[in-house]
Design goal:
InterPro entries: GPCR_Rhodpsn, GPCR_Rhodpsn_7TM, Olfact_rcpt
Subcellular location: Cell membrane
Protein name: Olfactory receptor
GO cellular component, one term: plasma membrane
Number of domains: 1
Number of strands: 3
Helix content: over 70%
CATH class: Mainly Alpha
Family: Belongs to the G-protein coupled receptor 1 family.
Radius of gyration: 21 Å
CATH superfamily: Rhodopsin 7-helix transmembrane proteins
């Protein structure tokens, strides 16, 4: 009888960024422009790396993968946001919500792993130049990239399975504009303690371990650079790491703000405000950061034009 009385939720209602129709249409125009610029910016990086022989080095190889991940990430979130803003209807099926969570979580995890690989690449280039060619051969590059593309989907699948196995009997409204695992898990009617522990462990593996690798490699880079006597060497080392370091700060800064800073009860829209930054703003900034002062990219773009 208890099983019969439980109503299973078949769809969720995303409250979105705004409830007023004029604001929704204005946001539609802005986010559509941001989405197109983000996709075009990252697509340009991929094309330039592929067609310019001088960019066929590990740093740009991993950068092209990062750009591809960014395109997949924004495509998993923004088109649905745009649809909801245009129609004014935030209804999303449970299946589509699950797919969106899985793809977005996978892409985010892959970015985390790839950022650690890129940091390791910079460490080898600056601190171990004599073995760099061997340590970052084409075979090694492929292995690192493949590891990112395999490990992240597996870890994300475990998290999503933990979420899908829960019972959802209402309410079905979500104070967000996309489906995010922690937000949806709060709606579960069943005991979520084990699922939360599993997700926490996987989160530590997918976020904290790559962050530890990045901090360690940059610690070694700073130590090595501090012993350089040549100003030219210092400038070169700084210029090759600056863009990557800014992207790392943006990526992990938003994660810390989202999951580690205590939320105020008086600010129910905290999750949405932070999410706007890493869903909309950061993917647009990343290709700009990597190309703004990159002379190799400028030269390749000029050559293509």
């Amino acid at each position: 009888m208890e099983a019969e009385n439980v109503t299973s939720v078949k769809e969720f209602i995303l409250l979105g960024l705004a409830s007023q129709r004029k604001i929704q249409l204005s946001l539609f125009g802005v986010i559509l422009l941001v989405y197109l610029l983000t996709v075009l910016g990252n697509l340009l990086i991929i094309i330039l790396v592929q067609i310019d022989v001088q960019l066929h080095i590990p740093m740009y190889y991993f950068l092209s993968h990062f750009a591809g991940i960014e395109i997949c990430y924004v495509t998993s979130t923004m088109p649905l946001m745009l649809t909801h803003l245009l129609t004014g209807n935030g209804v999303i099926s449970f299946a589509l919500c699950t797919i969106q969570m899985y793809v977005a979580l996978t892409m985010g995890s892959m970015e985390s792993f790839l950022l650690s690989v890129m940091a390791y690449d910079r460490y080898l280039a600056i601190c171990c130049p004599l073995i760099y060619a061997t340590a970052m051969s084409k075979q090694k590059q492929l292995q690192f990239a493949l590891a990112c593309w395999v490990i992240a989907p597996v870890l994300s699948a475990i998290c999503v399975i933990c979420l899908v196995c829960q019972t959802y009997c209402g309410p079905n409204w979500i104070n967000h504009f996309i489906c995010e695992l922690p937000v949806v898990l709060k709606l579960a009617c069943s005991d979520t303690r084990i699922s939360k522990l599993v997700i926490l462990a996987i989160g530590a593996l997918g976020i904290l371990v790559p962050l530890l690798v990045i901090l360690t490699t940059y610690g070694c880079i700073i130590y090595s650079v501090s012993h350089m006597k040549s100003n030219v060497g210092l400038h070169k080392a700084f210029s090759t790491c600056a863009s990557h370091l800014i992207v790392v700060i943006l990526f992990y800064g938003t994660i810390i703000c989202m999951y580690m800073i205590p939320k105020s009860a008086s600010s129910p829209d905290h999750d949405k405000q932070i999410a706007v930054f890493y869903v909309v703003v950061t993917p647009l900034l990343n290709p700009i950061i990597y190309t703004l002062r990159n002379k190799s990219i400028h030269r390749a773009a000029s050559k293509m034009l």
